[in-house]
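To make this tangible, we now present a fold written out as C-alpha cells:
***
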Amino acid sequence: MPSLEQACECGGSGELSAPRLRNDTPERAGLDSGELARLVTGVRALTAGERPWAAGAVVVAGRGPVIAVEEAVGWAVRYTAYDPRTDAGVPLPPAARVRTTVTTPFDLASLTKLFTAVAAVQQIERGTLGIDARVGAYLPEFRAAAKHGITVRELLTHTSGLRPELPLYDCADDTERLALLRAERPVGVPGTYTYSDLNPLLLQHVLQRVTGRPLDVLVHEGITRPLGMTATGFGPCPGAAATEDQRRPWAKADRGMLRGEVHDENAWALGGVAGHAGLFSTGRDLAVFCRTLLAGGSYGPARILGPDFVELLLTPPGLGFALDQPWFMGELAGRGAAGHTGFTGTSLVLDPATDTFVVLLANTVHPRRRLPDSRPRAEAATRVARAVRGR
C-alpha cells in the first residue's frame, strides 16, 4: 500500500508519482544531525584561509525525498587574476567579490559525462541504440573506430582503448577537429579500462546520428526539462562561479579569468557543448538528478528512465558512472554507490543501499588549477555514511 505522501503524489491517471525533494531536518531524513553538522563544518573549512581548497563551495545532502543539508560557503568570485610570480591569486576588493549562494551554478566539468550516459541509455531503452552495437554501424566515416570494432558499451565503460584526450583546442577549425576524431584509433587494449574524454565525445556523435538532434537538445528535452532542472544547461552561464585564469603554460589555452564559459579547453573549442564537459548546474538541481536515479528513474510525475534501465546504468562496471570508489566516495563506497567527479572541483555520489546522496560543488581551479585533491569529497561522503549508521 502506498504511503500517505505517495498517495498525494498521484497523477491524473492514478499512477503513483515519485515524491519530490523537500527541505527538512536530519531526523526526518533518518540521518544523524551531529554527523551532518560535522559535514557542514568541514565544508566551511575548505574555503578558509589564504590558500583554501576552493574559493567557494555548495554542499547538498539527503536521504529519500528529504534534503537535510543545503549550505553555501565562500566566494563564487574571489580573484581577478593569478600571479605566477607569487603563485597566488590577486584578490578582488572585498566589495567586488561575489559570495557563493545555494543557487550559484558551477561548471560541472566531467559530471557532464553522467548526462551523456543517461541520454545514451534512454536511446537504448527506446531501441534506437544497441549497447553492444559497433560505433561503425552508426558512424562509418569514423574510420579508426569502425576498423577496430569499438562498441557503444566500450564507450560507456571507458574500455575502448582510446587515449585520454586529443588536443582539439589546437586545431584550426571544426573540420580539422572532426578529422582528428574520425582518424583516432585505440592505443590501448580494447576491453581494458582507460578513462578517456574521447569516449563520450564519440558517443555524442553517435547520439546525434541516431536521433538527428544535438546533445544539448537531448539533455534538455530528455532530462532537465521533464525533471524541472531549470538551472542546468550548457553555457554560457553568466552567473556561474568563476574558474581559472586560464593561461599557458599551466593551461592549454590563453583565455584569461573564466566565469560562465566552460573551463575544459576541448569543450570550449567545440563550442561549449561536448559529451565530456560543458554543463553548468546547481546543488539543488543535481540533488534532483540523484533523487531521480535513486527512485528508479522517476521524479514527481516525470519518468526519464525505466527502473530496469537505471539498474543497467548502475550495474558494475557502470555505464558512465563510477561505482564504489573510496577515493572520492569515502565510506559510502562498498555496496553499489555511484557517482563521478569533475576537474573544476565538482562531485556527486548516490547510494542506492542507503537511499542517500551528497553533492559537493566547488571552484577548486579558481584562480588556477592545482594537483587534484579528492580527500574533501571522500570526507563529505563519509560524513553522510556515518550519519546513516548513527541513526
